[in-house]
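pipeline stage [seq->struct] | target=EAL domain-containing protein | organism=Massilia phyllostachyos | residues=900
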Amino acid sequence: MNKHPGLVFSRTNRYLVVVWPVLALLLSAALWIATVLRADAEHERAEGQARKDASAYAEAYEQYITRSVGQMDQITMQLKFSWEHGRDAGLIDELRRNGMFTDSAFRMVAVVDKSGIVRASTRLLLIGSDLASAPYFVQHRNHISTALRVGAAPPRFGEGGDLVLFTRRLDTSEDEFDGIVLMAVDARYFTSFISPATMGAGGMVALAGTENRLRVEQRSDGAAYLDKGAAVLPLRSDLWASERGVRKVDGEGGFADGQARVLGWRHSTVYPLVALVGISHGTALETADLYWQESRDRAIVATSGLLLLGAIGAVLARRSLRREREQEEVQRAYRTATESGNDGFYMAAAVRARDGGITDFRIVDCNERGAFFYGMTREQLVGSSLARIDAGLFGEELMATYRKAMEAGFYEDDRRMPLDNRLNISWGHRRLVRVGNGLAVTLQDISERKEHESQLERMANEDVLTGLATRHAFLNAMPERLAQAHAKNEGLALLFIDLDEFKVVNDTHGHAVGDQLLKSAAQRLLSLLRPQDSVARFGGDEFLVLLQPVDGERQVASVAARIVEAFGVPFLIGDDLHAVGSSIGISMFPRDGLDAETLVRHSDIAMYAGKNEGKGQYRFFDPALSNTLNTRARLKQHMLEAIERDQFTLYYQPRVDARSGELLSMEALIRWRHPELGIVSPGDFIPLAESTGLIVRIGELVIDKACAQLAAWRDAGVALVPVSINVSPKQFQRGGVQRQLSRALSRWRVPASLIEVEITESAMMGDQEDILAELAALRALGVKLHVDDFGTGYSSLSQLQRLKMDVLKVDRAFTSELGNSKEGKVFFQAIVSMAHALGMSVVAEGVETEEQLAILRKLDCNEVQGYYIARPVPSGEMLEMMRRRYLLAQGPLAEQGVSS
């Protein structure tokens, strides 16, 4: 038994007086080291998070840029296609009426011809401007590539804002340069992807070109700049030369405002563009700096307390109690900090077997947020073993991850959670750090971000209206499908499907009905195909179908016939049935092409060839189709050049009194003198002019030339006779003939009585009110109206009576029968009697023999025209006939002139 307990206590106190101050100093030093290390770790975490955010934003922004520029790509491609196939100066206005370019972001859309002159534009003041010296025009002219070019728009295109310019080369059918299409779009359209609140103070997004100096940026304060001095983005493109990356940029050669930023970038895989996101370095570290200040303050307080407690080493019990209270305060501060955050925190202790192997983990602590993720409370989760959680939700996956983290010391990933209604998180970012014999686990909810990324991916690859693949996604997937087919020696078939009469439904019933029809068409199309076949909406009312594999044309024809038959059944939209058919062009791999572009082009050619022969059918590609289209395209181009270079001229064929032979009138007939092709037959170019719409321009040219020639003959002092002009059905049905005639007559000071208009029966088929109105306008002008080629169309007696025509020209087919059969004479007599009863003069076309003339005189035919009188002749020879006046007195002139 100790006889000196006070001494022992005294020694103990003296011992504690020395030990406790030393222990206090050691604890203070350890506290400061831990505080500094944790602050450094927090700074490192914040820096790493800023890099991840910059990378994620850059990736999402690149997808947005690629999709947005892809839309511009499709629009310029559609504009290029429409212009190259029509070259209609009113194309842009028509597209605007159809709903294109209505977005306020489209500031200017224009078409520039090969000489640099603006031919069509949404800004009328630009029409006629010369852009031949513009760098983008020179670039396209000197390079055959038809790829989309992106750059900054010149100041002349600006309207109080910065613009990004999209241009694309136009080609002739010979792949020769034919001008460009250009589109100026508000630069903010490409920088408004991420809100300022998301980026934080000092944040910015920017779009840069990899092939030019295009710079578009917008900062978090809303300021936006396009390649101007006020922009802060460095001009050093070497900073983002790699395909993707993240780096901190500060100091000399950094951002112009001197602010350090974490710069993330990603190059577009499709376009020569790079998406850049800058997160303010200072803003990103604000939380870490605040944490350091708070930790420093707490460390100062703790150190002061420890030193004070060390000085009062004798009061051991009191010091012990104070330490307990301080620990409790630290725990409460930790609990408060973890509970106020959005992340889940867990402490998992390893449960080991006798051999040291880990058999399980036990949750020893967590916050309420972490327990909520697993559909539990903190009290329910703390104390639970990982094996029990695994068995209910994750199988063995969670245990394997925890063991891997214990082995490596660190593990981090993005994880899709199992589909279970007990979980309150679908995507989580996990961070596991080994601490002693356990793990500190952080779980961040990234479900919203992942959903946003998924939506962006769907928007880029899925057509919003029909749910089918987009043209861009379909063509991107084609090379892999073709490579697979080549490796397996399989055949493929590409079907280009166009809906017949869709435009009629869309125009008459509205775009809402048209959209519903496209949705129904897509669903019907999918129901006709195999699961392994691919379908895409190519644009408008066009679809692409890739059949893989196929055994040959017979199998493909069966599928195409099934589609044609199915689309022949009307669609029920609302309470109305809408009938639209389908025309299908088919190209086969590898026979008709080895790449996607060739296969699409050949199937498109086959589709249009089939549509021209009659809608509602399918057709396989034939190389001869391409040659035919090329020939037609070249002839069309030659016609355009002929109009521009005034290669068309008029010949004149006289019309005389059947009895006296007196020259009463003449018919103007167009001829084309090509410098290389020579005389091009009207039978070769008139049908093409009709189908392409160029007949309207040619018809207007004929009107002007005829009036000009009458003025020239008048100045020569000859007695004039009327000239009749043929008006095509398309020219007549579009209206405006009266306006064109009025303008030409006024310009050349020619009286309307010297012009006669010849209209075929087919031109008068249609809306009777519109036809009567147009004829009345021509009659009011003072010109005579002829029914041309009577007997070959659909005119009825009642129709002729309503239309009140002046002259009936009987087709040469009836004239040729005179003298050959009794019926031919009877038919002609009936026509003459009918015309005279209606107050119309009769002209017999195609009179070639004296016998025919004699019969016509007996039938009381008023006038005759044909080779027996004279062939069509140029204006100089016609002048001589006008001076002679009486042509039959000189005998037939069958050898004069050139063939009609």
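stage status: PASS
auto-comment: The chain has a mean pLDDT of 82. The first strand starts at residue 106 and ends at 113.
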